[in-house]
Fold this sequence. Notes:
CATH class of the largest domain: Alpha Beta
Order of helices and strands: HEEEHEEHHEEEEHHEEEHEEHEEHEE
Helix content: 10-25%
Radius of gyration: 24 Å
Distance between the termini: 17 Å
Number of domains: 2
Shape: elongated
Amino acid sequence: xxxxxxxxxxxxxxxxxxxxxxxxxxxxxxxxxxxxxxxxxxxxxxxxxxxxxxxxxxxxxxxxxxxxxxxxxxxxxxxxxxxxxxxxxxxxxxxxxxxxxxxxxxxxxxxxxxxxxxxxxxxxxxxxxxxxxxxxxxxxxxxxxxxxxxxxxxxxxxxxxxxxxxxxxxxxxxxxxxxxxxxxxxxxxxxxxxxxxxxxxxxxxxxxxxxxxxxxxxxxxxxxxxxxxxxxxxxxxxxxxxxxxxxxxxxxxxxxxxxxxxxxxxxxxxxxxxxxxxxxxxxxxxxxxxxxxxxxxxxxxxxxxxxxxxxxxxxxxxxxxxxxxxxxxxxxxxxxxxxxxxxxxxxxxxxxxxxxxxxxxxxxxxxxxxxxxxxxxxxxxxxxxxxxxxxxxxxxxxxx
Length: 400
């Protein structure tokens, strides 16, 4: 979770092995943390209530970006390990957080606009013998203001909190292990995490800080989404429900022209979403433009009245209004023009990645020869393009 700050923090060498139980045994020159059924302290009665309070504490800390950090729930000798950093002691832990959040002099110089989005807090069950780990899933973003082009780095992953009875509140955090989706996921389809060499994580961070080249002109403001995973070669996003207009097309430039004329006064959003059957060049292709999206708590987006009145009438007889429900989507980007071979290859690669990382595509998305892709750029713009293939994930085919 605190990865970006760790690039500028002191590093202590460590090694890691994965125990048969699935827990992780971490050793370093600064600390040794081993949690297993054989070494864990017995969980006293009433600890369930204490753990439930701790989970609420973590929720508050993430919302406030650890301001304040409720240190009475942390062991004075708490350890912190992420892919780039090892720290020991609650004061070092808090200083690291404060630097990332620009609450220290060094942090104000290095970083800006840091935020954490908490997706879930799970675990912490007891069986009368041990307290299981608490696990959080999160998205972290931070802008490196020290660089002239001010790049924003994004990390997604999990934090595993090791617990023990004791402290001022009946239970305390004695260690935190962070894993990034981009470097720590195993490639065996299990969805489990493993430790990696520090240099692998450093390279991942540095790659996000590099300046980019000229970009193609954006066609419209982008449909908002929540980033759930920044993985190796793909992202997973949660999109709100949205309304839009859809039409069949033969040539993409003609589809853009028709929808552009139709929605001239409707303030459409990007991307343009295409659906094609790659195995049949003679079948209709479909293009959809989002027009509006649902606000939190709304199951459906409002449809502009003008769109409802025009769609299906006169020169707009082939255009239909559509409602798209909220969904979780895996995407893989490409920068070449959205030609058939490029899109088909990106779709194939994304399906292989989903299998590698233990994610399950929605069965409808797997219909033979059906490919959905997104285009964010104006049709004839110059510069590096932004295209993506999209695959819906099954409702129970992902951990979010």
